[in-house]
Each structure stands twice: as structure tokens, then as C-alpha cells.
Amino acid sequence: AFGLRGSLKLRSKFYGPYKILERIEEVAYKLHLPEGTNIHPVFHISQLKKHVGHQAVPLPHVPLVTSEGYVKTIPVAVLDRRVIQRNKTPVGQCLVQWESLAPDDATWEDAAFLNKTFP
């Protein structure tokens, strides 16, 4: 599992997490490694990294999702307006805050699209 095959640049720098079986002296730990790894299970603490885990970001409410898997969004407010050039044609855009998303997730949308989709 930890063999020397493949590119060193693409290989993970850390593997695991693995359960600590015992502390050996002040600076080494014995880990429970999967069978077949063919490496010594005792590591110096400089070679180990604390496992933090996946940190969940709490949402105030779960956004609705369509049957196609897209987040169902409803515009709440237009925060700003601008005009951009697209193929030498001026296009009006609005910065839209969406109902089920945080204000930082506001997106620029074409005004024509908004008028057509949300009359």
C-alpha cells in the first residue's frame, strides 16, 4: 500500500488516520497499520500529524434541491447592477442574493435571464 511505485510528486504526504496502539518512549508511537503494508509500525513524532477530521459547516437550513440535483433558488434581493460588454454588446447584469444561500454567495446574473425566469 505504501510502495515506492508511481510519481513521488503525486503521492500523498500523509496516510491514515491510524489508531495509536502505544506510546514508545517520549518521541515515538506504534500505530495499527493495515495488513500487507510491509513497513515498521513505529514512527517518530516528527513523521506524524494530528488528525483533525472533517469539520462540518452548520447551515441554518438545508437548501431545497430539484430532481436534477440543482439547488432550487429564489432571488431575495438585487444588491447591485452593472453593464458588461459581451461580444461588443452591452449586457445588463444584477448581483442577486438567493433565498437558500448565504449573502456572500450572491451571483451576477443577466437581467434578461432574471426577467424571463422570475417575472
TrEMBL record:
Spans through the membrane: none
Domain Tf2-1-like SH3-like, residue spans: 5-51
A Pfam short name: SH3_Tf2-1
Signal sequence region: none
InterPro entries to which the protein is assigned, alphabetical: Chromo-like_dom_sf (IPR016197), SH3_Tf2-1 (IPR056924)
Domain of life the protein comes from: Eukaryota
Cross-referenced PANTHER family: CHROMO DOMAIN-CONTAINING PROTEIN, OS04G0603800 PROTEIN
Protein name as annotated: Tf2-1-like SH3-like domain-containing protein
Source organism per UniProt: Triticum urartu
